[in-house]
Design a protein that fits this description.
Blueprint (H helix, E strand, L loop, with lengths): L6 H9 L5 H6 L1 H11 L5 H14 L8 H8 L10 H5 L1
Helix pairs in contact: 1-4
Length: about 90
C-alpha cells in the first residue's frame, strides 16, 4: 500500500518541509514519491491516516496544531512542542 496524498497530507508535508519545492510543484504525485522514499512500507497506511487527521485538526494553522505549523513555518526544527498546560498559562 502506498501513501495517499490528499489536501491535508499535501499541506502538512509542504509546510513542515518534508518534501522539497520541486515535489510540491509536481503536485500530489511528486509529494507521494518523496514521502515514500523515507516512510517505511509497513507504516504508510498509518502514516497517511495520522497526517490526514492532523491536517484536518490543524487546518489553517489554528487549534492545537497552530504552534507546530507556526514553528515549522519559521524554518526552525522542533525537538518538542510545549506542554499544553504551559501553553495555556
Amino acid at each position: 500500500a502506498g501513501i495517499v496524498v490528499d489536501t491535508h497530507v499535501f499541506r502538512v508535508a509542504t509546510r513542515l518541509g518534508w518534501v522539497d519545492g520541486a515535489a510540491a510543484r509536481a503536485g500530489p504525485e511528486g509529494v507521494r514519491v518523496q514521502l515514500e522514499r523515507w516512510v517505511p512500507r509497513e507504516e504508510r497506511v498509518g502514516f497517511t491516516l495520522a497526517v490526514v487527521g492532523f491536517g484536518q485538526l490543524a487546518r489553517g494553522g489554528g487549534g492545537w496544531g497552530g504552534a507546530l505549523v507556526e514553528h515549522a513555518s519559521s524554518g526552525a526544527r522542533a525537538t518538542r512542542l510545549p506542554d499544553s498546560d504551559a501553553a495555556e498559562a
